Structure formats: structure tokens, C-alpha cells
Amino acid sequence: MTAVRPDTVPQQAPAAQAPFPTGFLWGAATAAYQVEGAAAERGRTPSIWDTFSHTPGKVLNGDTGDVAADHFHRYRDDVALMKRLGLQAYRFSVSWSRVQPTGRGPAVESGLDFYRSLVDELLLAGIKPVATLYHWDLPQELEDAGGWPERATAERFADYAAIMARALGDRVSMWTTLNEPWCSAFLGYGSGVHAPGRTEPAAALRAAHHLNLAHGRATEALRANLPAAAQTSVTLNLHQVRPLTDSAADADAARRIDAVGNRIFTGPMLKGAYPEDLLTDTERIVNWPELIHEGDLAAIAAPIDALGVNYYTPTIVSTPADGAGDTRNDGHGSSDHSPWPGSEHVAFHLAEGKPRTAMNWSVDPNGLHALLMDVSREHPDLPLMVTENGAAFDDAPDADGRVHDPERIAYLHGHLEAVRRAVADGADVRGYFLWSLMDNFEWGYGYAKRFGAVYVDYATQRRTPKSSAHWYGDVIARHALPPGA
């Protein structure tokens, strides 16, 4: 992917009643550990996020996902809420340790039954279930055996994929193997701000390869166990990389981050090879010829039906004049250890003159348009789905219990207009999933950050749709953007 500067191009004014393509799918997304709760019910065993969140100092305020939004017990009410809001699809993830507690062997039927019941409820409500097999919650027993840096974990993941396909394949037609494997590899094993909290550059790169392999093996397993019409995909948090200046040094910084942030996955998954510059940048850290076995690249490049794209904010980089990195404003948490092996010296910057979310992320819809166009140009025959897009703000109920979030509405309007422009410019974008359906456990930030369109009072578990939820429901009903934000 090439580095571009969409911030230099004026954003077009939103058009009234801007249409989206026929069949464009409108949804919202969540992740198992962030919403389900019921951490020790029906045979579920700890995942790496249970262990990490229960380790003092790892998560803000000592928060855990033990209860989260209690979706496990409240899914029927949550599906009814989705229906009232007009959602056409719900993208959920499966807790691996709920259905296969050790990461090996037969499934626990009571765990599978939860997902069967959830899917049945969705179908009764006329909502399309979209299943993600992995959203960062590796069974702890597999981490104890070495985790994603070990090749065997990829094989276990393929077995798990086959179990899920056989259990839900008769009623779920859209499947995603991995959500944001970059985070799993580089935040989990590089900077340590995510579970399992390891800070080992070589392990992070090994994890990236084995996550790629897990995607390929799982895609094969899904194909072998699903009806022919079922669709498979993977979801990547592609970094929309921009150099801070037009200098050659900053261009090289952008190339480096594009390699280890994007092409480390798109290369093998979509082109059947790792980019040579990535291998050169990281050869001092990991022995790639030893890591990549014969047949790996062919397996990783198993054909998929769609690519999920997650976008929140652009990534602006430079190479400091003295060759040493400064404060790392990469949006991926605070750590003394870099999640960018081989490019630790690269400096990250916040966009000047842009609004910021509660995560201190720059609001820039042009980045989403540029990203979709980049991917579309490089892979013109691959349909795209925006599988996560949203923003955290400091939401709170007013005296009447209502939650007004005009900043989120403005964020969503701008980014949906960016999607519409990308479609008009030729990108084959098939749908949009708001992140997130409801407030939830926000990983290392615990319950301090709220991304949801639905406000959750964690003390009572009361759900209150925010203004943005009603606004999004209106967009779905119109199949178009309203005029203005």
C-alpha cells in the first residue's frame, strides 16, 4: 500500500439523501470478551484476556471482563434492541475458550448452545449473523504452551474453525477468521499493552506469521465444512499511513510502517508472499527462512470472498533527524516497548487542526476514503466491508436519562460520507458495521472509554440508545445519509 496525503484534499460537502448501493449491508459489531461476561459459566475457562485483566496494573482501574455488558444473559433483549434500531446485521465474535476450553479436543456443547441460541434469535429478528472466530481471546492453556509464536497454535485454530463451521454452518453464511491480527501479534507480544502482555520483538513477528497461517488453515477448514454459498473473510486494521513531510526520510518511515503495519498481512494473504522490504527491515530480529515452512504461503493465500477493513484514525509518521524516536503517538497505548519491530525509531504524530476523540485519536474521514481507494486499486476484484468504524467520547446521561452524543453523530456522518464517496469512485464496498453496538470493556482502558451507540449503565446493565443510535437507525431506514451532520 502506498502512502498518500488525503489531508491535502478538501473533503466534499455531504450530499442530501446520498444513496448507498442496492444490497449495502448495515450492521454493528461487538467482541466476545468485551460484552459477554459469564466468564466462568457453562465450562468456559480463562482466555489470555481473563488472565491479563486480573493481573494488577495491566488494565485501568483493575477492570475485568468478568461481567462486561452481560450480553451472555441479556442477548435476547439486546437482539430486540438491534431490531428496534433497524440493524440488518450483527457482527459478533465467538469466545474460543467458551466452546473449546483447552483449545484442543471436542467442543463443550453448552458453550456452542449459547451461540446457536444467539444466532437463532438474530434470524428470528431478521438480522444477519456475521461470525468472527477470533477477537484476541486465546485460551490460556494454549498461551501456556507458547501462544501465537508457536506454530501449533495455528493448527489448533483450524480445528476450532471446523468445530464452529459444523455447529453454525447451517444458519451463519458470513464468516471472519481473525479480527485485527496486527493487534494480536504486536500489541500482545511486542509492546505488551494487550494480552498476553509479552514484550518480545521476535515473538511478535513469529506470532504474525502464525496468525497468517491460522487464517489460511481456518479458511480451508471453513470451506470444507460450510455450504458452498457461505462467505469467508478476514478483518484487518489497516493503517492509513502518511509521511509527516515530503522528505525522503519521512517517505521511508511511511514505507516501513506500511510494511509492518499492513503488508505483513496483505502480502501473504492476498498476494502469496511477504514483501521483500519487510523481510529486510526485520531480518536482524527473526530468521524468516526458518520460520516460513514449505507450503505456508500457499495455505495463507487461500481465496477469500471479502476483506474486512477497520478504520478509526490516520497514522502519521516521520524519521527524527537524530534517528531516535520521540513520544509514540501511534494510538496503540503507552509502553516502553515498541509494537513496530525493525522500525522502532519511527516517530508518530497527531494530525494538526483536527478534532480528537476521547482516545486522543484525530478525526479524519478522508483517511477512510483514501484507505478504501488504496485497497480497491491494489485488489480490484476483492469486495470490501467496513467492519469497524466509530469513536469514543465522554458520554453521560442528562437529567432526563437521555444520552446526547452530537460528536459521535458528526464522526459517523463524515465517515459514512467517505464510504459513499469511495463507492462513487469505484470501490466495491458492500457494507458498514458501526463500532460498537454498545459500551463495553475497552481492553486496557477498562470501562473508562465508551464507543457504543447504546449507553450501558454497568451498575444496573440498563441500556439506553444514544442520539447516535437513533441517527444511525434513520440512516439505515433511508439507505442514505440525511443532509448535514
From TrEMBL:
This is Beta-glucosidase. The active site is at E180 (proton donor), E388 (nucleophile). One of its GO terms (cellular component) is cytosol. Residues 322-343 are annotated as: Disordered. It catalyses: Hydrolysis of terminal, non-reducing beta-D-glucosyl residues with release of beta-D-glucose. One of its GO terms (biological process) is cellulose catabolic process. Residues 325-335 have a biased composition (Basic and acidic residues). Its EC number is 3.2.1.21.
